[in-house]
Specification:
- This protein is 44% helix and 14% strand.
- The protein is α/β, with parallel strands linked by helices.
- It has a seven-stranded mixed sheet, with helices on both faces. Strands 1-12 form a two-stranded parallel ribbon. The chain has a two-stranded antiparallel sheet with strand order 6-7.
- The structure holds pyridoxal-5'-phosphate (PLP).
- Pyridoxal-5'-phosphate binds next to helix 4.
Amino acid sequence: MSLLAPPSVQPLASILPAEPPLLMGAGPVPIPYAVERANSIVINHLGPTMNRVLQSVRAMSRYAFQTATPHIFGISGPASAAMEMAVSNLAWPGRRVLALKTGVFSARFAEMATGVGASVDVLEADVAQPITADQVREALRVAQYDVLTIVHGETSCGVLNVELPEIARLAREHGALVIADTVCTLSALPVQTDEWGIDAVIAGGQKGLSCIPGVSLVSFSERAWQAVQRRPRPCPHWCLDALRADVFWDKHGYHYTAPVPGLLALYEALRLIIEETLETRFARHLHSSLALQAGIEAMGLQLLVPAPHRLTSVLAIRVPQGVDGGQVRQRMSAQFGVEIAGAFGLDIVRVGQMGEQCRSHHLFRTLYAMGSAFLAEGVELDVAAGMAHLEQALAGTP
Ligand SMILES: *Cc1c(COP(=O)(O)O)cnc(C)c1O
């Protein structure tokens, strides 16, 4: 027997930084200790203990999503898998999908719908602009659609589709199911699944929920569930088949081995939301984001998206001409242990304001690191003014 020689590797500890960096990018975000602890536990994925966990995850998700639906599922996979679960159970060959595109993630919906064989039309917004209800009204007038996909907060460019409730209403009137990605907004700013009439809502672990990456949630309305049950053909993705997932989530039978630590981590992340209450959590997020925005602007940097449709949970900051945003991020990471995000094609850097990122001590460290790094890259900034404005804004009541 001849075996390949083993590679030479170092223990993990020698690869990871001695001190964990502060994750202030567009996800993953820092996780609370209760989540971290839960994520280290493995129990049987079937049986009475797990059933109690599953039932509570569903009950708590209903609160987080603001829905009464019984059809909520946790997914062993990234938020993209939850998007794919919604798309692949509600779209199939012969179905027509209207995908509203404001950036990378909303474009992903169109790719997924094309992948399952649906006919897809893409309604595209200008750079850093949302799709308006008027544009949707017009698109629904000229063609018939079965499904409309929309991203509530487009993380890639920091745009909030503020007209989501009106767009959802138009789609329902038209007879189309609405799939909404609320990965970076759910529990950070209001998402009213039932009140807005959204048929499938997606949340990812590592963003608004302040949990771990690799687990996600999706809810289906009664209307959507009927479509799932009446599919003319089986869902092409065995793991993402909602009817098979229902065997586990509703009947507590075996589908695949559930990501036990991930579900326990979701449990704790959701429990912390319940404990904080959505009202308080929204207020904390807004207060934190507005204070950071005030600091960024007072320092002399510019935000990409105008206030009316600026996503408060992920801020896109313009990189001044002639400056390398990658160098700025590199400096922040190396000198201050603060990581923020770059962008997909746009000349911006992005700072997250999701979950644990919205804590005042993180804001001070991040803003100082960012100001110092831009300054070192030759941008004329008043770092002290930025810090003062941050401090003043935070001192006000949430
Ligand atoms: C991050 C993100 C996703 C994808 O999440 P993954 O866990 O990387 O699959 C989808 N939609 C939005 C709005 C996001 O911010």
